[in-house]
Amino acid sequence: xxxxTRFLPDRFTLFLVITVLIASVLPAHGKGIAAFTWITNIGIxxxxxxxxxxxxxxxxxxxxxHWRLHLTIFSATFIMFPVLGVALKPVLQPLVTPELYTGIxxxxxxxxxxxxxxxxxxxxxxxxxxxxxxxxxxxLLGIFLTPLLVGTVVAASASAPISFDAVGKIMLQLLLPFxxxxxxxxxxGAWVYHRKALLKFVDQGSILLVVYTAFSEAVNExxxxxxxxxxxxxxxxxxxxxxxxxxxxxxxxxxxxxFSLEDRITLLFGGSKKSxxxxxxxxxVIFAGQAVGAIVLPLxxxxxxxxxxCAVLAARYAKRPH
Length: 322
Description:
Blueprint lengths: L1 H4 L5 H15 L5 H24 L2 H7 L3 H21 L1 H4 L5 H11 L6 H9 L4 H31 L6 H19 L1 H9 L2 H25 L2 H4 L2 H28 L4 H11 L4 H11 L5 H27 L4
Helix pairs in contact: 2-12, 3-10, 3-11, 3-12, 4-9, 5-9, 5-14, 5-15, 7-9, 7-17, 8-9, 8-15, 8-17, 9-10, 9-15, 12-16, 12-17, 14-15, 14-17, 16-17
């Protein structure tokens, strides 16, 4: 049975599906949307504050010594992915609706995950310190680079109205709480570090709030009526193709730069993953006033596919001789 459980969605993914179903059947309206938006903003600010208080500056500084590996991972995250999203437009765009293709381009511009990239690298016996450094730095760089990439890539390829003011809004809503958390780290860092359950609750809870609010607005605007079943099936195929090419690209980069096997594992799991935790809050800011539910749907699907595929890859790497 354990052989097949790794293919099953995790509990948080099930919560995401349940949240989407609730929003589809019982969407928030009017003042309810406004109330959920305020609560969500507070939850996201608290999330980034706690991440700032928990993240060790010493670990980041120490990890940057392996700069060739980090630059390669950042290139895969912020260059290779956007290039793939744009280059595959003739193939991907006919499979999905315009809003879903915008969402595909958006996920291509996002930073890498933190927790799962480190967890899979550790499971596969890769370079864990480098994974911690690159994943953490990717999240920070994403606060600046993602809105700039979205403003360039998405606006040009999907004809979506994007404002560069989103950079300032994201810095205010995400970076400022993070910096405050770093400032408070000397007083509350140890307390936060030993309360991982609290961070996980705020992390997952804020995402679920954003998903419910976003999908409520999208359902009110006719998301499921305007998204045909063939487009949803096409989205599954598009996400699978995108992940496969990203994994192959990371393997090719690792071999081209002659990294050790441990470093290639870190590159594979750090350069091919996209952050749901950062992506959904950013989408709410960058695409304010648009159908955010349709835009984050590709990210939610890609997130689950990458977890299942990387779990299998990590398990295979873990079986190699010591």
